Amino acid sequence: MNPLTFGLLFFIPGVAFFLLILFKYTEQEHQKELEQYAWFREDKRKWLWDSDFALFTKIAEKSFIITKIIMLLLSLYMVAAGVLGLCMYFF
Fold first, then answer.
1. DSSP code of 45?
2. Residues 6 or more apart from 39 whose CB is under 8 A from it?
3. CA proximity to 43, closest of 32, 29, 33, 57
């Protein structure tokens, strides 16, 4: 895979995810997500089969702002990987 393909495959979805989180993810959406994963909070063995998701849901139920910041940072990692690939191609 050449750097241009890598850069575009990470940059375009990263920017789309960033804009989606920035403008569309509201407190109402956050509450819907918490209700959707309510079963996960009651599972006693959740740490055994998905510890990362268990940690994220524990953080998500505490604060909407922290959840939004974490998701924005994740999208910026994708954008940064895409920019790195594009820089490798053009420079």
1. T
2. none
3. 57
